[in-house]
Write a structure and sequence with these properties.
The chain has about 750 residues and is mainly beta. The chain is about 5% helix and about 55% strand. The longest helix is centred in the N-terminal third of the chain and has 14 residues.
Amino acid sequence: MKFSFVVLLVSCLFHSVHSHYTDQTDYILSGYVFEENSGNPLHGATVYIVELERGTTTGEDGYYSISLPAGYYTVRIQYLGMETAEQEVTITGNIQLDFSLTELDLDLDEIIVEGIGFGDHIRGAITGVEVVSIRDLEQLPMLMGEIDVVRSLVALPGVQTVGEGASGFNVRGGREDQNLVLMDGAPLFNSSHVLGLFSVFNPDVTDGYALYKGHMPERFGGRVSSVLDVSMRSGSAQDFKVHGGIGFYSARLMVEGPIVKDRTSFLVSGRGADSSVLFLLAGKDRDMMRISLPLDVYNSRAWFYDGNANITHRINPYNRLSLSMYGSSDYFRYSDEFGYSWQNRIATMKWTSAFSDHFFSETTVAANHYRSSYFTPEGAEAFRLNTGIGYTRASQQLLYTGYSRQTWNAGAEWTRYRSDDEELNPYDELSAIAADETAKDSGREMAAFIGNEIEISDRLLVSIGLRYSVFQQLGPGLEFSYADGVPRTVNAITDTTRFNPGKIMAAFHGFEPRLSSRLMLNEESSVKLSYNRARQYVHQVSNSTSPTPADIWQVSTRYLPPQISDNFSIGYFRSFWNTEWEASVDFYYRNVHDLVEYIDFARLFLNSHIETDLISARGRAYGSELNIRKNSGNWTGWLSYTLGRTYVKADDDFPERSVNRGEWFPSNYDQPHNVNLVGVRRLGENSAFSFNFTWRSGRPITAISSNYTDHDTTVPVFARRNSERIPDYIRLDISFSIADNIWAHWEPSPNRR
């Protein structure tokens, strides 16, 4: 059945190229949209054909392509915070037309009036996608004067976190590690800084992001829940600029400018924060207000710093080369009890090339090393536990727009994972802990994909694709064999096989079909549906409700197969009053096989046979998202309500290894109700008021039902896993923004300009 579906999908892909839409009765209008001052491409700009009342948006490199019949048209280009550009054009053949947009003089006032433009939620083929620019983020309430990518996500329907201080985010009931988070094409293992107050994306060097929470285009793979694709800025090739800001407990500085004007640019930025001031204030409140905050809070410390660097060189009008680097370090210590530290190191080289007006290529090489540590600083057994993972990755993507009403893309990826050995070391010379080390697994992931977005008619747009992925667990390593007919435990080990470096220990592969479509019911409404299958070969292993920075990343093995998800989505989208208002309702269902779940009392660290404490589980998530959005006028914003459930079933052949007797139970991220209300109100020529109200159900927890004493030791007895819930979560953020051009190039607003 599955094979037949794949064959049908491939047939549709290649049959479409011979369809009657390739007879060139339509012509291709294509080009690039840039920011005039910096020369940077604008991702997500709207290209609208006034006479036909339809349009498209630019990609990450600022490129757009749209098919048009012969005729005379007005092309309107719009991007949030930029002057709208219009140009009249006569189409008698394929032509390329580039645009440069200038920034609005009265940023705040004009941004609020303009809104987000021409109903892309209605006309796009992809379900469940949110495209947000940095100027969108500037309108949202800011935490302590700082805008942030990840914190803005939770204001969107279907996106949640398990609570304050949580690392990462959850999309439609998925786990944190099931999100593919990309920084300029490089996957991340941890997207948050200390305490979860900031993400790794510095707003000064961020262009915007696209969140794919419904359909995943075939060029993305390796995760089963969602994709967060974040685009980073290049430096200005025109002018030398310095940007900076000081927040409540953070500071940042960015320098950019041309090395060779109009050809080569640079950008360097740095950012740091010392969250210890929060703990100091908590300590003062404890003394002044006589409240019962623990003294340990006063003695806690937290800080982070990060830096970005970029050099971009325009070789010629058809080739551009970019080199980006990122580094960060985080530290958190809760009094003298425990702490975490972690570091990110990322380097990316990207070569973008145009072979012709319709044939484009993007080559990316990236490397990432993530290192984390958990420590207890006091006592006779003070220790530091280190773990980490890294990869080297190369990808090639090709884009062809030469066919009328069609856009083809194809490519391949190769990723080599290398896990750091787990290391247990004494915290200092006074510790009596003995050093220990456990080797971890490594692997190799490869994938190839092909896809086509075809406009079958003026009403029907289809995006169809196919991805094929392969994963190989590689030596050096040990593989244990276990006795049949008994639970998988250390005592059941019957044999050990040693693999030399580079030898294949286990292999997995499979097709990942992708399909999404949009049917226009009329000019103001559409129906979309999608299906995609995804495979995930690396897993974050945790036995806590919220994964910590020090949790283990584990590649797939013989006993821990890859996660496989089937995702379904259908939605109705409607615009009102010339796109001033939009409304949508989206239904989704996800079924996941081979979730990694831990057994009761699992030991995950320094465990060379970790499969004895883990089992493969099933997961399912389903729900609906209702969203009402106002795009323009004095008041803008949205109201969203998500009703969703997420369940897990960890049923083993041996009842003692099953969780909750092998019955379905709520996952850690099961929060049935989630309401978000975001509003932005213009107050004058250059000021605005904004707020963000959130209410969501409390997450499940595993409570202690009783305890007993064993040789003077109190042993807790836990109830069924996730059988209780914490109280509901309610939050209100309020912000007041002022944009003033008293100084020509220096703006005292905490917002980036």
